[in-house]
Write a structure and sequence with these properties.
This is FHA domain-containing protein. The protein has 244 residues and is an alpha+beta fold. It has four helices and 17 strands. Helix content is 20%, strand content 34%. The strands form four sheets. A six-stranded antiparallel beta sheet has the order 8-7-17-16-13-14, covered by helices on one side. A five-stranded mixed beta sheet has the order 10-9-11-12-15, with no helix packed on it. The chain has a three-stranded mixed beta sheet with strand order 1-2-4.
């Protein structure tokens, strides 16, 4: 599989889903991925036999009209881009100097439909950000527990008759995640198997009724980190709680 093929497949799913009406003309998300692909290809630097360093900070420049359409989506598109960059870098054995950051900027010099990428290697701390992906929408997980269910008292509400009012919960302690069924009527599945209480690995799929919920951990740049000489964690190695 070529560089960033997963990127294009992931965003094709997004374009065909919640974002489809927004991108009938002008710049397409898949064109951003192609531009990021070229940038990563060009900037990949072999540091040693087992270390290939690629940029971790990207500025995506586009016309004002395209920028308005993209930013109207909120953080969902950026999260998708960060997630897919992270996954592909791991599959290609690339490494980052710090967390991934992707910024969208309006450039009056660019015509509608055009995109340009500026990138840099910035050393810094990684902020591991857990999210639940439901039907193309990202829901951040707060430290503690996030209750999922059909009832209004749930933190993440599902419009699904197969879900109980308080169906299951995802626990996050800042490093590790777990899923626990809350005595639901129809039960909870994890990666296709019934589950009562289990560790969550990145890209695990929780099934509740007809709803498919994907657990992801995004390797984002830590906005509180100002120490440029601090040794950075690498998204290649996985988030701290993986496999525990």
């Amino acid at each position: 599989m070529g560089l960033l093929d997963n990127f294009e497949k992931g965003l094709e799913r997004v374009v065909n889903g919640a974002f489809a009406k927004t991108f009938r003309s002008g710049l397409q998300p898949v064109e951003i991925t192609a531009a990021l692909k070229r940038e990563i290809d060009t900037k990949a630097a072999v540091v040693s036999r087992d270390r290939v360093l690629v940029p971790n900070r990207f500025t995506v420049r586009m016309s004002a009209a395209d920028h308005q359409r993209m930013t109207a989506l909120g953080p969902a598109l950026i999260d998708e881009l960060v997630d897919l960059v992270q996954k592909h870098a791991a599959s290609q054995h690339f490494q980052f100097a710090g967390g991934i950051q992707i910024d969208l900027h309006a450039d009056p010099a660019l015509s509608e439909g055009l995109v340009q990428i500026d990138s840099h290697n910035v050393k810094g701390r990684v902020a591991w950000t857990p999210v639940l992906d439901v039907a193309g929408r990202r829901h951040p997980i707060l430290k503690g527990r996030t209750v999922i269910g059909r009832g209004s008292e749930a933190d993440l509400t599902l419009d699904d008759s197969g879900a109980s009012r308080r169906h299951a919960e995802v626990q996050w302690d800042g490093q590790r995640a777990r899923v626990r069924d809350l005595g639901s009527t129809n039960g909870t599945e994890l990666d296709g198997s019934p589950v009562k209480d289990s560790v969550l690995e990145p890209d695990s799929v929780i099934t509740i009724g007809r709803s498919r919920i994907v657990f992801r951990v995004l390797a984002q740049a830590d906005p509180t980190d100002t120490a440029v000489n601090r040794r950075a964690g690498s998204p290649r190695d996985g988030y701290p709680g993986a496999g525990r």
